[in-house]
Amino acid sequence: MNIQQIHGVLLERFGEVAVGAAPYQATDAWVQVSADALVAVSRFLHDDPRMLFDHLNDLCGVDYLEPDPKKAAKFGHEPHVEVVYHLSSLKLRQQMKIKVLVPRWKDDVPGQLPVVPSVSSVWGIANWHEREAYDLVGIWFEGHPNLRRILCPEDWTGHALRKDYDFPLEYHGVRGR
Fold it and tell me: Could you tell me the residue range of the domain that residue 59 belongs to?
């Protein structure tokens, strides 16, 4: 199945609110899934015999903060964070991407991490990938069994891949810059 056919099945099953009106066309097309529908859509993609997306290749968080004013005209969208899921069906030899877009801050309160449901119950490897996205981009994965830092020390402040992250001058007495 191609991305349009997969989207058609998802649209029929979950509706436009959950999976958008059409897949986004790009070099690597994707289906945008609402955070509310993510677990149900993921479970369907994993279990349905037409899909069988049994492998989560990668999950990453991306911060889209509006750039400096000179580049803002080309930016083309509101600041947000995305979680990108790269899926494969080994049996059916097909691949796809889904994306979940959420505001940079929960309820637009700076410092309140955005929330996306965990898919670690669907794909076990998501456990590690979600911890990395939490640690580096600051996305809270609701329902994750052990959401804690995986790369940075537990007492690290902030999330280093946030576009507005201010790197500390020193950490435990070690100068960084």
Answer: 3-164
Q: Tell me the C-alpha distance between 70 and 85, whole Å.
A: 31
Query: Residue 65 pLDDT > 90, yes or no?
Result: no
What is the CB neighbour count within 10 angstroms for residue 119? 29
Q: Is residue 26 assigned to a domain?
A: yes
Residue that is written with structure tokens 């590690």 in the block: 128
Measured CA to CA, the distance from residue 38 to residue 19 in angstroms comes to: 9
User: What is the value of pTM for the model shown?
Assistant: 0.91
Q: Give, in degrees to the nearest 5, the angle at Cα 48 between 42 and 49.
A: 145
- Is the Cβ–Cβ distance between 117 and 134 less than 8 Å? no
Q: Is 45 exposed, middle or buried (0-12, 13-18, 19+ CB in 10 A)?
A: buried
- What SS3 class is residue 102? strand
* Number of independent structural domains in the chain: 1
pLDDT in tens, 21-42: 999 988 889 999 999 999 999 9
| CATH code: domain of residue 85 | 3.30.460.80
What are the tokens at 48?
């349905």
CB 81 within 8 A of CB 114: yes
